[in-house]
Amino acid sequence: MKKLKNFPYKQVLVLGLAKSGTAAAELFLDSGIHVRINDLKADQNEPAVRQLIEKGAEVITGGHPLSVLDDVDYLVKNPGIPYENPVIAEAEERNIPIVTEVELASFLHEGTLVAVTGSNGKTTTTTLIHEMIQADQQKVSLAGNIGHVSCEVARSTDADETMVTELSSFQLLGTEKFHPEIAVWLNLYEAHLDYHHTLENYHQAKAKITANQRADDTLVYNADDESIARFLPDVKAKRVPFSISKEGEGAWADDTFIYFEDERIMKKQDIVLVGEQNLQNILAAVAAVKVNGIRNKAIVDVLTTFAGVEHRLQFVTKKNGRLFYNDSKATNILATSYALKSFENPVILLAGGLDRGTSFESLIPHMKGVKAMVVFGETADQLSETAREAGIEKVTKVETMQEAVDQAYQYSAEDDVILLSPACASWDQYRTFEERGHMFIQAVHKL
Q: What PANTHER family does the entry give (predicted)?
């Protein structure tokens, strides 16, 4: 396992444990750097915490006293902790560098680093890129917001290995020197304003994916996204577009085929993944791997077999002619609108979740195929009103996922799609969108 070399800081504070904080702390300890850990809820008797203490970490729990910053010259924060946290605010006052653990991957990984971000489609695109490189029998590892801590993965990668990492705006905001050789910027819409406070702050956080790129690096970007376009004049890297509407440059598609530049890759009808959103993800992945030298056969092998990522328009089962899809990862309106555009069959939509103060009015144009809705969570009343404005007469408010699935089935007929695509984060009722998706799948199988 690799260690940090020539690291310029001597006293590090890790704020927030979870997987990313634990991995960062272990890296620092193994590298001979003094580590102080501050976590509000961690129990010092937990085996993982005890192990860190035994390795030499200083652990402070139960609160966030400003004294945790004493003698600290570097702070690694959990991505989810807001910058209003008093310790982070005080660290900013003291000009202490504040990063997320993905920053540490830049100190460790020696091969090609592919970083993927966007408001939607990150996990599918990241997974596609990984699968395509692997299908070409090249060394590749998967990391980032997809469930594998970047600095932990980077410790065991080889110099000839590609590391593909999915990055959120929370993670990117905490980067200073993070440098991907290939950056993929999928799209840029309104999201996470409860964290970033303004749309401009959110956009600037996303733009950090290319901030440290050089002329010999590559930015793969969505040529159909005007919000990304305004950042392009400042990009130093080679720019490779992908587009579902413009032909001839980068990765693109017509009615029959997908292409890279003037090279025909494969027929669209042979691709397993459905929907316009997934076509964008596919083109982004094709562009990223083509500039990385991956052969067409590997691309075709993946796209003719890859059926999707769990919780992202995931086909669950067919029961009595009804098709069930789990799109729990649709935590914003855009993701749900893409899901609705993926189906020609009538849809019973299950939606609702955390109230972030967002209007659902922009969802209405995409609801023409929705015959009924089942709503839940903090936004249930807002979504009920949105459904009525869209002319949907069958709307039911429920408390649990089992009730939602049962009611959706009662509304449905043969050949209907029963779709969980919440348009909201899950944290009002569930710990994660994965938990919400698993509850949906469990409820479907109980029918």
A: UDP-N-ACETYLMURAMOYLALANINE--D-GLUTAMATE LIGASE
